[in-house]
Design goal:
The complex is a heterotrimer of chains A (about 375), B (about 290) and C (about 500). With about 375 residues, chain A is mainly alpha-helical. Chain A is built from 15 helices and five strands. The longest helix of chain A has 28 residues. Chain C has two domains: about 230 residues, Rossmann fold, CATH 3.40.50; about 240 residues, Rossmann fold. Helix content of chain C is about 35%, strand content about 25%. Classes of the chains: A mainly alpha (about 375), B mainly alpha (about 290), C alpha/beta (about 500).
Chain lengths: ~375, ~290, ~500
């Protein structure tokens, strides 16, 4: 506890929502300032750069819809991770689960011919299941052997990456053009409809929004959601209350991995219409979803907003490539900085500033 | 046939050298109790800075030195967040990895395709040095005073604290050391192994280095053969392309790591992870 | 050599841990610190060992004032500590543990270099220690010896032993005393923290009794009346007793039969406890913290597995049931740590009130929870249990300790349990909240609940209990009707004197 005049800084076990918002915004702001420094090192006027980014992305009629398009996988993955993080299941494997979902969807698309719309429905189901399957091993190892879930989910990402590469260069290889390898194009029944003039596959977007609302309801109103919240906030109290931690971890995994799998199907069925090299299917959505979930501070509905924000960053990457001759990689710079400052500012969350009246010596409350 | 095997071994060792360096660095950081997932970022920052220095000064060795400095500095950022701020180490490392890759991608744009004239030979000196260094680090870790201090900081920081060890300092230094080695490892790539700069040229080597640390049971000697094994797998993935799908070979290191983690889970005796790994420590905690 | 502590005072937020504590220790003396939990013994020794700084007061070594800012300073002055919970690296060898932090050893092969010194010290004091053994291979007694050797090798001439016999068998205790005697003869000073009278009188030259942060007295240990010591240890405050209506207890509500259990470190905590609590009766559990009370509560409420023995609630065997099943069998648990176990601080008052019953109707219909029903229930509880809160949706962390406890009681008692296990229910609460809690418990007693009350407040136990059982070293030292008990008698049992 420290006193600065009439203000007292003291630790608090749980922060007020307003404070969380302030700290989050401050972190994002710091990230943008740091990024500005990098622009400056690259010889670009930061103010000019930011104007181009925001104005360019938000006003250009071709660029603005891209924000929504990039938001779709971020939303799906992010919303699932919100639940996983709430249950203290650190699923860093959304990237791999997304790829697994893409594989599952592709399998159905190419090898299980069905009439529309059942084809797409089955693809989504298969992708969801594939994602869950991908998350099964890390969850199992965590439950049974208490193996660290961060490392195992991370490793699974790379296994998924190489698995997709193998499929695309090997057994599922379709045409090869210009040195890239990909599968055959999906039949028409496996194409997701797009909003005309854009690349927004609205069905997946609807899925994402639906998931956000359902998970918000799930967390707030169902028994299982209650258990997840208790377990995440206070594992000892959860034990005392008779909540089974194993079951909650499984639920957390299923929700987050399944959502990521759905995102994978969305990408292959909506954007690419085939399975291709992993770094083209996912531009790092699984990792950026960590930011989406972290910024959302545990609220699936807030994840809609944070996903849009990250979608803005991703789509501005294209704008920056064209307008400022910056490589697309610059989005990684933003993402990395935002995440870093978010993590660095965590400690601030758990302090609060109270105005203490000099006369009474104690403000209201306890 | 013999030539074939010999050739493979040599190539494996060449590929494995940077992996070994980065892996050794990660072992030291984790032995002190801090997980550094930012190795990929530190490696690529090292690769880029080494290339730039080597090109502008014509001195590749200087490039390596600077690479180490850059890697170490980045690691200090991580140490600050992990040790002083006691925040989530895993995600902080991830953030730095993202940042490093992105940053070098942005800053390195004008440097692609430039040939490097002043290079270091791939094998010979560097590789032998790396084996000697690994052996030396093993010795320091297990048979010197410093080593006991580092290992205790990772196993039981409370015990070390009560005996007057400055756990914070030990962790800072170990993480920084890990970063230096990662930077140097990256420098190898751009100055010796593949003298050039391309965006993303570390290609996931940093993640393999983390895998090596685990696979080797946090033992620098075992890291030698772990690094060369993984290097061999990488090389063989190209060499055996016509018989074995290369991707399957390339995913082996990651699969092996999961296996090792599962096999050594909960082991308090020999090989498991340092007990306090990943857990922030507050001085005076009992 | 003389070590003197002058007027040491240390306060933590809300509690005075040490107040003007003055005592001295001479070379060749075994000086015992006797006191209950919270008496300030460990705080005092932590100041001596440099773990924290006293607010005021002085430490003098041989007449010279010294400042001990960290364990390093303490070690440099020749002060060593063997903590109650050993600070050893399990994976490392004895030699590596002892070599840790030694700055005067060689840089290379420090463990090997120190082996001969270890064997030296070991034989000098009769400590059989193998330098190459790894800690996880050693028994608690052997580990303790490693701690002792570690302190001695660093040149400790003043050794602090914090509750050293809590992990030892009687034989091992005798062995430890032998070692202490040899150290004494060698001119070392030993500070022996304990709450066990037998040991204090057996090994100590002088004993200082601490209570509530103050020194009660310092006396020669031999020949002192144990009853006097016990009385000093637990004190005889003004005893206020609530009017308790006599009630004839009925049949057994809770039956504990030869319960054996281990604690979190794998050491024996309960060594065969047998006890019955009748319906309509309050049985108080007295004892210094660490003698098995926590494990008893955990086993009875299903949070810890018993190694052997049986627990029956009414006629049902609940020994192997999960915490949830035990709760469903009619056992309420008011936990010791209300903030970290009893509630979820970020959740609302209403949600905390259904923390255990959220899965049943009317609070849940199938998988969906009924917010309106939960809210209604919350309002009812707030009124009935006089919980002061702005509303049902208020985050519970904003409530005062007393109101949080009222909420916990409301939650647990509203389920009309047969058995109530209350662990330190009024610790940290003000007088009015305490009285309210007492009233609630007595009312339930009247209504026929079987209540197991664990408390460190003897006044509370005497006021509320019908019978009082004293736990010592995992066994019941004795059970007395409350009407026949007083502080002295209980204090004796708490310090190991059987009835």
């Amino acid at each position: 506890m420290r006193r600065f005049g009439p203000f007292q800084i003291e630790p608090t076990p749980s922060p007020a929502k307003g404070w969380m918002l302030v700290v989050s915004l401050a972190a994002v702001l710091c990230a943008f300032v740091a990024a500005a420094a990098i622009f400056w090192a690259f010889g670009i006027n930061p103010l000019k750069a930011y104007t181009v980014i925001f104005v360019g992305t938000l006003t250009d009629r071709r660029a603005t819809p891209e924000i929504l398009r990039q938001t779709i996988p971020l939303l799906l993955c992010g919303v699932g991770l919100v639940v996983a993080f709430r249950a203290q299941f650190w699923n860093i494997g959304a990237e791999g689960q997304l790829l697994a979902g893409a594989v599952g969807g592709t399998a159905v698309a190419l090898f299980v011919p069905l009439p529309a719309p059942w084809h797409l429905v089955t693809m989504f189901l298969a992708g969801c299941a594939a994602g869950i399957l991908w998350g099964l091993l890390p969850a199992f190892l965590r439950i049974k052997l208490d193996v660290n879930d961060v490392i195992t989910t991370l490793m699974m990402n790379y296994i998924a990456l190489f698995f997709v590469e193998w499929l695309v260069h090997g057994p599922w290889k379709g045409q090869t053009a210009r040195g890239f390898a990909y599968t055959d194009t999906f039949p028409a029944t496996a194409w997701l409809a797009l909003v005309p003039g854009t690349r927004i596959h609205w069905a997946t977007l609807a899925l994402g929004l639906g998931l956000a609302f359902s998970l918000a309801f799930f967390l707030a109103r169902t028994r299982l959601g209650f258990e997840i919240r208790v377990l995440g906030e206070n594992p000892r109290a959860a034990r005392y209350a008779g909540i089974d931690p194993l079951k909650t971890i499984v639920v957390a995994m299923v929700v987050s991995a399944g959502a990521a799998g759905l995102a994978g199907v969305g990408e292959v069925a909506g954007i690419h219409h085939k399975l291709l090299a992993p770094e083209q299917i996912s531009l790092g959505y699984g990792y950026a979803a960590i930011i989406v979930a972290w910024l959302a501070r545990g609220s699936p509905l807030a994840a809609v907003l944070t996903a849009l924000f990250l979608g803005l960053i991703f789509s501005s990457g294209d704008v920056m490539k064209v307008a400022l001759q910056m490589p697309f990689r610059v989005t990684d710079v933003f993402n990395g900085l935002i995440l870093f400052f978010l993590i660095g500012s965590e400690r601030l969350l758990y302090y609060q500033v109270r105005w203490v009246s000099a006369k009474t010596g104690r403000s209201g409350g306890r | 046939m013999m030539e074939y095997v010999l050739d493979t071994v040599i190539r494996a060792v060449a590929v494995g050298t940077p992996l070994l360096w980065a892996g050794l660095g990660e072992i030291y950081a984790e032995r002190a109790g801090v997980v550094n997932l930012g190795v990929e970022g530190m490696m690529i920052l090292g690769a880029f800075s080494a290339f730039v220095i080597a090109h502008t000064t014509g001195n590749p060795a200087l490039g390596l030195v600077v690479a180490g400095g850059v890697g170490g500095t980045a690691a200090l950022l991580h140490a600050f967040v992990a040790v002083t701020l006691r925040a989530n180490q895993y995600v902080s490392g991830l953030a730095l990895a993202m940042l490093g890759v992105g940053l070098t991608g942005v800053l390195g744009r004008g440097w692609e395709g430039i040939p490097l004239l002043a290079t270091l030979p791939e094998i010979s000196a560097l590789t032998y040095v790396s084996i000697v260094v690994a052996a030396g680090l093993w010795f320091v870790l297990y048979h010197t005073r410093v080593g006991i201090v580092i290992r205790s900081a990772g196993e039981s920081p409370a015990a070390a604290d009560a005996l007057g060890v400055n756990v914070y300092l030990v962790r800072y230094l170990s993480v920084a050391f890990g970063g230096v080695l990662a930077g140097v490892a990256g420098g190898f790539l751009s100055v010796a192994y593949r003298p050039s700069w391309t965006e993303g040229m570390t290609g996931g080597a940093g993640w393999i280095a983390i895998a090596i640390a685990i696979f080797a049971g946090w033992n620098p000697l075992k890291a030698i053969w772990g690094a060369f094994l993984f290097g061999a797998l990488y090389y063989l993935s190209f060499r055996l392309q016509t018989w074995v799908p290369p991707e399957l070979l390339r995913m082996m290191p990651f699969a092996f790591t999961i296996l090792v983690l599962a096999a050594t889970a909960g082991s308090r005796r020999g090989e498991g992870a340092p007990e306090a790994l990943g857990l922030p420590y507050v001085s005076g905690q009992r | 050599m003389t070590l003197a502590l002058h007027h040491i005072t240390k306060t933590f937020p809300g509690v005075v841990a040490n107040h003007e504590v003055t005592l001295d220790v001479q070379a060749g003396e075994v000086h015992a610190l006797l006191g209950e939990n919270g008496a300030g013994k460990t705080t005092l020794m932590s100041a001596l060992y440099g773990i924290h700084q006293p607010d005021s007061g002085e430490i003098r070594l041989d007449g010279r004032a010294v400042r001990i800012r960290s364990p390093r300073d303490a070690i440099a002055l020749g002060i060593g500590m063997v903590p109650q919970h050993f600070l050893l690296v399990r994976r490392h060898s004895v030699a590596e543990n002892i070599a840790l932090g030694l700055t005067d050893g060689p840089f290379f092969f420090p463990a090997r270099a120190i082996e001969s010194r270890i064997i030296d010290y070991a034989s000098r004091y009769g400590l059989g220690v193998d330098p190459r053994a790894h800690i996880w291979q050693l028994s608690p007694s052997e580990q303790q010896r490693v701690e002792i050797v570690r302190a001695l090798i660093r040149g400790a001439r003043i050794l602090i032993l914090d509750e050293p016999t809590s992990v030892l068998t009687p034989q091992e205790t005798r062995g430890l005393f032998e070692i202490i005697r040899r150290m004494k003869e060698d001119g070392c000073a030993v500070i022996f923290i304990s709450h066990k009278l037998d040991e204090v009188t057996a090994i100590a030259d002088r004993v200082t009794v601490l209570r509530r942060g103050r020194v009660v007295a310092t006396l020669p240990a031999a020949g002192t009346d144990k009853r006097a010591l016990a009385r000093m240890m637990v004190g005889r405050d003004v005893e206020f007793r609530l009017r308790k209506e006599p009630r004839l207890p009925e049949a057994d509500g809770l039956e504990i039969d030869r319960l054996v259990a281990r604690n979190g470190r794998g050491l024996p905590a309960l060594r065969g406890i047998s006890l019955s609590v009748h319906r309509g009766e309050i049985v108080g559990i007295a004892g210094v913290a660490g003698n098995g009370q926590r494990e008893l509560v955990e086993v009875v409420t299903g949070l810890r597995a018993a190694a052997s023995g049986r627990i029956r609630v009414l006629d049902r065997d609940t020994t192997r049931l999960s915490a949830r099943a035990v709760h469903e069998a009619g056992v309420a648990h008011i936990p010791e740590d209300r903030m970290h176990v009893g509630i979820v601080p970020t959740m609302s008052v209403a949600e905390n009130l259904v923390l255990k019953r959220y899965r049943y109707p009317p609070f849940a219909h199938g998988p969906i929870m009924d917010r309106a029903a939960i809210d209604r229930f919350a309002r009812q509880m707030i009124a009935e249990y006089e919980i002061a809160t702005p509303g049902t949706a208020t985050p519970i962390r904003l409530l005062s300790g007393g109101n949080i406890q009222r909420l916990i009681l409301g939650r647990e008692l509203s389920a009309h349990p047969t058995v109530i296990v209350a662990a330190h229910p009024t610790s940290g609460l003000d007088v009015s909240a305490t009285e309210h809690i007492h009233t609630l418990l007595l009312r339930r007693r009247q209504e026929g609940a079987a209540i197991l009350l664990v408390s460190e407040d003897l006044d509370e136990l005497l006021a509320l209990s019908d019978r009082i059982a004293v736990l010592f070293a995992g066994e019941i030292a004795g059970v007395v009707p409350a009407a026949e008990a007083d502080h002295e008698r209980l204090g004796l049992m708490m310090a190991g004197q059987r009835r």
